[in-house]
Amino acid sequence: MKSYNNTDNFHKRLHTIEILFQTMEYKGTAIMEMRTRGALGYEVINFIDFEDICEDDFKENNVGFRLLGEDDDGNEWFRMILKNDEGEALFVEDELSHLPNYVVKVEIIDCKLI
After folding, report:
1. By Cβ atoms counted within 10 A, which residue in 38, 71, 74, 81 is the most buried?
2. With contact defined as beta carbons under 8 Å apart, do 13 and 114 qualify?
3. Residue 50: helix, strand or coil by DSSP?
């Protein structure tokens, strides 16, 4: 991001956030947008609730993230596809409550006043 205007927190902003998921050497990204008013920097990132996220939350879904539904115990499951540098795919299926374990980077990549 070339510039981040965090001098005035009274404006509405559209933050574009890139999330990097990784396990072992397999990784992938997804991009989401968040509209905020008064929240800046880490506060914006901290609003992301990875245990209450769905595929519709992503503007770009390069990992093919999707919810699979609940198991017999009422736990929500997800699926995503991560790739290594050789392009080999790893299909990840896990409980949604474990999704934060796959997040290795969260970055605001753009911010516009709206």
Report:
1. 81
2. yes
3. helix
To the nearest 10°, report the CA torsion of 88, 62, 98, 53: -160
**One-letter-per-residue 3-state SS of 57-104:** HEEEECCCCEEEEECCCCCEEEEEEEECCCCCEEEEEEEHHHHHHHEE
User: Is the CB of residue 105 less than 8 Å from the CB of residue 19?
Assistant: yes
Residues 9-65 pLDDT 10s: 778 999 999 999 999 999 999 999 999 888 889 999 999 998 889 899 999 999 999
Helix (H) or strand (E) holding 43: helix 42-46
CB distance 44 to 108 below 8 Å: yes
Query: Is pLDDT of 78 > 80?
Result: yes
The pLDDT assigned to 95 comes to 97
> 11-46: b or e for each residue (b if 16 or more CB lie within 10 Å)?
eebebbbbbebeeeebbbbbebebebeebbeeebee
